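G.,

No rush on this.
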Amino acid sequence: MSEGLFDEGLFGATDEEKAERIAANAPLAVRMRPATLDEVVGQDHLLGPGAPLRRLVEGATPASVMLYGPPGTGKTTLATLVSKATGRRFVALSALSAGVKEVRSVIDEAKRRLVRSGESTVLFIDEVHRFSKTQQDALLGAVEDRIVLLVAATTENPFFSVVSPLLSRSLVLQLKSLTDEGVRSVIRRAVSDDRGLGGSVVLEPEAENHLIRLAGGDARRSLTALEAAADSALASNEGVITLTLLESTVDKAAVRYDRDGDQHYDVTSAFIKSIRGSDVDAALHYLARMIEAGEDPRFIARRLVIHASEDIGMADPTALQTCVAAAQAVQLIGLPECALNLAQATIHLATAPKSNAVTTAINAAMSDVRQGAIGAVPAHLRDGHYAGAKKLGNAQGYRYPHNVPEGVVTQQYAPDDLVGRDYYEPTSRGAERAVAERLPKLRRVIRGE
């Protein structure tokens, strides 16, 4: 018997008593993990009557599953509920620490239990996208033969990060970030429930709203911050979590910012217009406000990618590359570190030469198409890779530009009604100046002028 058991007063306690005492010391987010399907917040699209996730948890569908979604959406919870509902043994592995040896050990034990007592095993693998191809392949036989019921969780798109054979043997279910009201219900339950804080603290409305902003759809993040604030409130003998106390506890200033209200649109608009106006300092200010307010970094990244073409375009073609890289970094890294990537992209766009020529070009072209200026594709440009194309005159007389030294030939590309119509008008700013000098020469050669 270890000395620790005497110190904790567990000597002589039953297994149930030990489990209760250990659970009482668990983090708030663990204690508040839903014990039944009815306690799960969000994911209504997967938990309705007859929905695949409900059928899986209720044991009606003995299929392996990939749970794909952001952190704090209940992936581990749902895996645990699957094992409880079906009476299966539950084994959890993390792809961060487990290797092929550990996977095979679990599978071997699952085989022995299945043969010896008929007991099935639910194998939960967190962050399965971090497994190598070899590690994922080690699961295939056991999953296919249903030696284990695999429940794998990933924050990455499994169609890019999981091997195809494993995907084909699993249901892929996408979980969504919790809404603000979903996070609110999780927080309020944690404050009042005996598993949580049991009503020992009072959470003021402003503090509750700030917790929701901090969560960003992640229930676990909100409960972690709530627990820290509750400890501080109880230590002060007042038991009240105010906005000031919460700010000092989580070391973040509250930003008065409603993501669904006018402030969301006003700050986003000011952010884009500051970039367009080349005011890098103002742009960084609004970026910081969005991040501190709990704005989804993917939303910010999308706006930057759009803006790179909308207001910079060919004046600095590398701007789009920077923004796409920043968007990928957001997916790969997440907050808080991806704030650096968003800042770099913001600085690049704000300091880049500006041109809206790409925007006006596609708008003009789409306007013509909507008004019916379409016209037939010239015969020499049509597809000639099928039987009978030659008889129809398709692809006949096409001039291959690479056959001439200049790489440009005189040839009609536009439909008859649009010959001579210019959509793209480059500016003389930045890298677009070179395009502006070259484009008239290209048009003259192409049109035989």
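When you get to it, here's the other one too:
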Amino acid sequence: MAGTTKEPREPRPTSRGWPGPGGGMVGYVDPAPEWRGTTVQVCGLWPFGAGAGTPMVGVPLGRDLDSGATVCCDPVSWFMRTGLLANPSMFVLGRPGLGKSTIVRRMALGLSGYGVHPLIFGDLKPDYADLIRAIGGQVISLGRGRGNLNVLDPGESLQAAARLTGDARRRLLADIHGRRLHMVSALVTILRSAPPTDREETILSAALNVLDDRHAAGSGRGVPVLGDLVQVIKDAPEAVRSVALDRGDITRYRDITENLEASLTALLGDGRLGGTFARPTTEAMKLDRPVCFDVSGIDDSEVLLQAAALLSCWSYGFGAVSAAHALADAGLEPQRNYFLVMDELWRVLQAGRGLVDRVNALTRLDRQRGVGLAMVTHSIDDLLALPTEEDRTKAKGFVERAGMVICAGLPPAEMPQLAQVVELTEAEKRLLVDWSTPPAWDAAGGRRSDPPGLGNFLIKVGSRPGIPLHVDLTAAELEVNDTNKRWHK
């Protein structure tokens, strides 16, 4: 109808407030606050609560890359408190520089707060020494001119055996003998790149028994060293000659033991290993605190010495843990739990044929012992690069037996081998490959930016879907997490 006027529309509020002058509309709406709580705490807020989807038990590692929820995880807590793992162990894989040691350090720090002592058996860079010092632990330095670790020194085990009686004492003494025999055989294997023969191991075992009798309590001779073991073989006592099968001919005995004597002599002061394992132990390991064996003083060019140092630390440390548990079982010491870290696993495995068996014997820890284990290496290729099919199969078993596998960025060529031991979806494979992409060049800053996969990890437990997460370090952790100190002014 002509001439009619339209009545003004009544103003209505929008989702951002009242429009118009003085209305008070906002340009940005804050997201609704979120809280996390148990079902008992938030049951009255239904239906506004949502499940997190990841376990809230264990060391807080970081945030889930999909949901943003907090991810708590460590092999000890997931085994003891949730039953998610069949055994308290994990295997960590990933390209260098993406944070493998960082996530293990986070677990070690968190577990120390739970009363589980971290034990670092061979820190090559070092990655863990500053952390262990910061939490009041013991750092033992090894290497040429730095410190020695006598492979015949039972450490706390002998003192523990003296406090025990009956079967418990006999079991611990047998364990001491077995570990020392394994360690001497392993050092011979590293020097020869081949294990000693069955006859040579039998001779070593008999010689160690004679050595124990010579250095028994009250003899005043103290702890034996490798030089004393060589002297026993030279002395040709009847107990050693009988297992050498020399048929009563001393000349035949000298011929049988010549190669073994030469290998053991090479382990002494003038040998390739510089006497690091043939001299008295510089500093004994303590069982009531975190411990780190710092072997960063050994140059990367000394491959054999590095492998020998790592294997010696593992053997010595596992023996100390066995002694601690024997005392706890007898009620003489409180029960302690440990988190063992075996970093740079590939260095030992590739040092010589037969070393896979040595590591295999060390890592088969009974889950009733209250010990969590973390094995760290770069890729499955490290395990498949071993010379024999038998060794490759055993090395793959380290991953297959692990309670959980944590992967950082990995190259595409790694996926077929990894899929043989870890069940991965296509989306998870793409995620790991994307994280391995090299860093881009930051034109504004004039330097490389951080790799896209830095701090990102995928947690796999059996056939369950993987949990992708990102680890951010706190200010306190950054102070003990600097692995580039040599580049600072």
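The first helix runs from residue 39 to 42. The two ends are 86 Å apart (CA to CA).

Enjoy the weekend,
O.
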